[in-house]
Every structure is written in C-alpha cells, then in structure tokens.
Specification:
heterodimer, A: alpha+beta, Sulfite Reductase Hemoprotein, domain 2, Sulfite Reductase Hemoprotein, domain 1, 4 domains, 6-stranded mixed β-sheet, 5-stranded antiparallel β-sheet, 18 helices, globular, B: alpha+beta, DUF2849 (chain B), DUF2849 domain-containing protein (chain B)
C-alpha cells in the first residue's frame, strides 16, 4: 500500500490545521455561513437532513486494517456507531458535530487519511477496480496510476475551481469493474501489441440528470503521458466548460455540445504544448509509486483445494457463498472475497463499528492486511488463501457479514435517499430493503442469476440507477414518492444507459413491479445461462413493458 | 389548513430545530411559532434572515405544516423525516428520544 512521505504528512496536517481554524472562526461568528460553506465542503463536510455529514476519502478504495480500525473508532467516538460505504468508494458519517470535525480529521491524519476533495468543483477521489492487484484477469494494477493522479490533483491550483466536480476512474482489466465509462475521465490500463502498458482514454461519461456514456478519445496513451494528457483534457474543460448553468457544467455536456472529434482535436492541440513538459512522468517516478503496490508475498497453499472440496460438500450454504462471493485470484491458491454489506433487509453499504473492527481483524490475519471498498458498496478481502476460506467465512458469519449474494438481485446499490440526504426527493433505502426481503430466498436468487439492481433517491443518481440492469429512480410527484424504472443499463465494458419503462410506480407498487419484471425475464430467457441483461439486449423493453403495464391495466 | 413554521439546522451539530414562540430554537416541532396568515408568514421570512445573521442556525426555511390537535404535522415527507429521523433507523434521531407518529 502507498505510505505517506514527509510531504504528504505535512500537507495533510497543514490542511487539518487550516480547517481547525476555519471551524473555530465559524463557531465564533467570525465567518458567515456563506463564507464557511465552500471551506467546509472542501473538507468533505456537508449538511444533511438531521446533522452534518462527513465524507472521508478512501483513495481507489484501498484500506489497511489500521485504517479500518480508525474508521470504526471514529464511528464509535464521534458518530452513532456506524458508517456508510458509498458508490464513490468513500465512507460517510451521518451524525458528526461541527465542533468535532477537526478532531476527526486529526484522527484520520494519524492513519494517512483525510476528507479533502470529497466535495466541491475539483478533481474528486480517484476510484479504481476494487479487485486491483488481485484479480486473475488483470493486465496491470491500476492503483499506482490512481495514486499518481491523486498526488497530482490534490489541491491542484489550476483545477480547484472547475466549472463542476470531476471524477476519474481507472481499471486494469478488460472486464470493467470500475464503471470507467460513466466518469468524466475513464482510464483503461492495457497492453499494446509491443507489450507496453498504456491507457485507453475515455472522456465525458457521467450519470446525474443527463446520463452519457464516455467517448474514447485515445486508444493507447503511454504511461509517461498520463499527466500531460490529463492536464490537456482538464485545460480544455476548464476553459470551455459551461459556468453559466450548473446543470450543463460537467464535461459530458462539453463533449456532447462540442462533438467528440472537435474536442479530441482541442485536447491533442493542448497536449502538443504539454507533451514534453515537466509533467511527463519519468519511469523512475512511476517505479517509485509502483513499488508501494507490489503484490504481497503469498506462500503456496495447495492444501486448500482438498479442504475446500470437503468443506463445500459438508455445508451447501458455505458452498453457495464460495460460488457467489469468491472471485479468482492471480494466484490459484488464493481467492478474492467479497464481503456483502447487503444482508437481507439491511441498509446497503452500512457497517457498524464492530463489523469494521471484525473486517480489520480478518484482513490482518487472512488477507495481507488489505481491504477494499467497492463502488457496489461492499468490502473486499483481496488475498485470502483458499485454505482459509472456511475460517474467514465462519468469522464473517459471527456478525452478519457472510451473505452469499454478490452480483445477485439482493446485492442492491442504494444511495442514502430521503432518509438522510438533503438533495433527495424520495427514499431509496426502504425500497432496497423491501426488494431484498421479497427476493430473500437463496435458491430463487441463484435461479435469477446475475442482476444488478440500483436505486437513487433523486436525479443526481448517486445510486447509479442509470447503469443498473434494473434501475429505480425515486422522485417526488404531487407530494408522494414515485419510482421510475429503467432497464438494460450497464456500467461495465459494454456500457449502456438504461431505458425508462414508462410511468412510475408508487411506493406500494414498486416491489411488485420489480417482481413482475423478474418473472417476465424468467419466462422469456432462452435458458439459465442467459442473464437478465443478455435477455434484455436480445428482446428489448417490449416484453417487460407489456408485463408491467398490461398487468397494471388488468389490475385496474 | 396549512400554516407555516420556521425551521433550520443548529450550527454546532446540524440538528434540525424550529423557531419557538419565545424566539428560542426548539429541538421539536411542537411548540413552534405558527404563522396563520400572509403577514405572519412574511414576518417568519424576516425572522429567518435575522436568524442566519445570528450564527445560531443555518439552512433556514419556512415550511408548510398542518395543525392536528396539539401537534404540528409537516406537509412534505422531507420535513416529516427531518422532524423524526431516518425511517430506516428508528433508534436514531428525534424519534428515538420521544414517542412520535411514523413519518411515512
């Protein structure tokens, strides 16, 4: 893992001291809210419905056990004993007092963490594949490049007041688990014909009120050009992005209005002037960062295979968990474990302080002291020996962390919605809970197979509903919550924005409507191998609309 | 009939509060100063502007409520959730402090 150097420590400490002073001046009345608001936002402090919210950055979703224990400690000491892992691989505390914020930031700094750039019109926390450095299908680890981007973008003087927020995601495998095509910049780390590492560069993706799939503007960018090219993109955006209308200020609108070809031309022109500047990455610098992310030494543990076979045979629930929540590792004696934060009927992404401590303990003993946060609001143990799966499973079971549903219909992404969020227009968590309960039966979930269901409580789409195989958007209509369904979205390498089915459904109707869609899928799929998304892509929306609305008409 | 009250979040901890008849900010909506006609509502708006300058509260808003017996019932679900706490965590927020009607 990356370790702070002296510069990093001094930088974060200085920012904490600065914010401590700003909080004191605010509480003393020396700063008005209008003056203070942009300052607190730069430090990840929002105001929600019931209290302040602190959004802690988890760069590229990577945590050590020590850091996770600190997050647990903060939840226990300054909050209400839990935290919420988000679709940005961050953690949100829902109840901290303003007066405690400097102390919380001090505590975070002790473990090389902070809340900088988790809000505001700047380059936000850089996200990455949550299986980075472990997945069997990985070409190269995306985290060193995410770290380079983090260092470069932190308090970048030129890019701290962009037209709007800016999100960068990096993936290092053909299978895109980081949803790079719905980010402002998406970087796909790959090898060219000569075996060199570089990036395919995507620009202008995003969700929100105007969802768009990013456009590929370069098929292969050498690693040494990562910062020069990114800077060129940022400059074109910073200069031409619309500042007159908040809703048209993201780079996706600039790309759309300028045209991909013209925008690419502008970026390439800007890049020509930068290409050989100081921003060109020397290989020694890349190697220095890369050295922090070298794969851990994993002893051969071949005995695990026979032990696993016996354990699977003896316990079909454990076998189901292995099938669903363990993904192939680069080392065949190991697996990548997804810890579901989606217990049946639970709140997606929430973890108690005790659960965080437990995960930290397990990671320390069984996963090389490494934990990941996925944008799907789960936690990952990236390096677990097959031989240790049973004991890890048993430990997870002790605190409701062994739900075998990764990638299934109850593994629902949900934003906090109107239960917490000041921007929300409808609740999303209760809908997620009711759907989870409706589809609780493991056999039914297994029969349905892979199905990504994502719920947002407002048009800002923090719950990624646009790229849900089934997406749900909650809105307020005539004072009531109304839920709009979209189908066929996908955030992976074949990225698509879901199609809205038609009129929305009330809170009472929405779970039945989802069940109607799922039942129709089961009727029309060619066989069990055809996933929901594949069936939708083959047949389109018609059979689902027919099921949804003719049934509604029949019921009426 | 819909009437209006003034609500905000407390500066120090962000907790939802309502302006009481005595000019104090209350932790619970019952007891809030009720504006029953346009002039009174305008006075609440003015009180809101003053409140922002006082540095005790932030995010000050006039909201619609109904008088139901001795209780005030916010018209919008958003305000009912602010009044009580998250509907998915009944152990948290104001609802955990005193018995109250379900927000939904």
């Amino acid at each position: 893992m990356y370790r702070y150097d002296e510069f990093d420590h001094a930088f974060v400490s200085a920012r904490v001291e600065q914010f401590k002073d700003q909080v004191e001046r605010r509480l003393a009345g020396e700063l008005t809210e209008d003056q203070f608001r942009p300052l607190r936002l730069m430090n990840g402090v929002y105001l929600q419905l019931h209290a302040y919210m602190l959004r802690v950055a988890i760069p590229y979703g990577t945590l050590s056990s020590r850091q996770m224990r600190k997050l647990a400690h903060i939840a226990r000491t300054y909050d209400r004993g839990y935290g919420h892992f988000t679709t940005r691989q961050n953690l949100q505390y829902n109840w901290p007092a303003l007066k405690d914020m400097p102390k919380v930031l001090d505590e975070l700094a002790e473990v090389e963490m902070h809340a900088l750039q988790t809000s505001g019109n700047c380059i936000r926390n850089v996200t990455a594949d949550h299986f980075a450095g472990a997945a069997a299908d990985e070409v190269a680890d995306p985290r060193p490049y995410a770290e380079i981007l983090r260092q470069w973008s932190s308090m970048h003087p030129e890019f701290s007041y962009l037209p709007r927020k800016f999100k960068i995601a990096v993936t290092g495998a053909e299978r895109d688990r980081a949803a790079i095509q719905v980010h402002d910049i998406g970087l796909h780390l790959k090898k060219n014909a000569a075996g060199e590492i570089g990036f395919a560069v995507y620009v202008g993706g995003g969700q929100g009120r105007t969802p768009m799939v990013a456009k590929k503007i370069r098929d292969f960018l050498p690693v040494e050009d990562l910062l020069t090219y990114t800077t060129a993109i940022m400059r074109v955006y910073n200069l031409n992005g619309r500042r007159d209308n908040k809703y048209k200020a993201r780079i996706k609108i600039l790309v759309h209005e300028t045209g991909t070809e013209e925008l690419t031309r502008q970026v390439e022109t800007e890049w020509l002037a930068l290409k050989n500047s100081d921003l060109k990455l020397p290989q020694t610098d890349v190697d220095a960062i890369d050295s922090y992310f070298r794969p851990p030494h994993l002893p051969q543990r071949p005995e695990g295979w026979s032990a696993l076979a016996s354990a699977r045979k003896a316990d079909h629930v454990f076998a189901a968990w292995v099938d669903q929540n363990v993904t192939p590792h680069k080392n065949p004696d190991y697996g990548v474990v997804t810890i579901s934060l989606k217990p049946i009927g639970g709140i997606p992404g929430d973890a108690t302080d005790a659960q965080m401590d437990l995960v930290a303990d397990i990671a320390e003993q069984f996963s090389q002291d490494e934990i990941r946060v996925s944008h799907e609001q789960n936690l990952i143990l990236p390096h677990v020996a097959i031989a240790d799966l049973r004991i890890v499973y048993d430990l997870l079971l002790t605190d409701s962390l062994a739900t075998a549903n990764a990638g299934l219909i109850t593994d629902i992404i949900s934003c906090p919605g109107l239960d917490y969020c000041a921007l929300a227009t409808a609740r999303s968590i209760p809908v997620a809970q009711r759907i989870s309960e409706r589809f609780a039966d493991p056999a039914r979930q297994a029969d349905i197979g892979e199905l990504k269901l994502k719920i947002s409580g407002c048009i800002n789409a923090c719950g990624h509903h646009h790229v849900g195989h089934i997406g749900i958007l909650g809105v307020e209509k005539k004072g009531e919550e109304l839920y709009q369904i979209s189908l066929g979205g996908s955030g992976d390498e074949v990225c698509t924005i879901g199609d809205i089915t038609g009129r929305g459904f009330s809170s009472e109707e929405i779970v039945d409507a989802i069940e109607t869609i799922v039942d129709r899928y089961l009727e029309i799929r060619t066989d069990k191998e055809e996933t929901f998304l594949a069936a939708y892509r083959r047949l389109g929306a018609a059979p689902f609309k027919d099921a949804l609305y003719s049934e509604a008409a029949d019921a009426a | 009939m819909s009437v209006k009250v003034l609500t905000a979040n407390r500066l120090t901890d962000g907790e939802a509060v309502w302006l009481g008849a005595n000019g104090e900010w209350l932790d619970h909506i019952d007891g809030a100063l009720v504006a029953r006609h346009a002039e009174a509502a305008a006075a609440l708006e003015e009180a809101g502007k003053v409140a922002i300058k006082s540095n005790l509260v932030i995010d000050v808003n006039v909201i619609d409520v109904e008088e139901r017996g001795e209780h005030l019932y916010p018209i919008r679900l958003r305000e009912r959730i602010r009044q009580l706490g998250p509907t998915v965590r009944l152990d948290l927020g104001k609802q955990a402090e005193k018995p109250a009607a379900n927000a939904a």
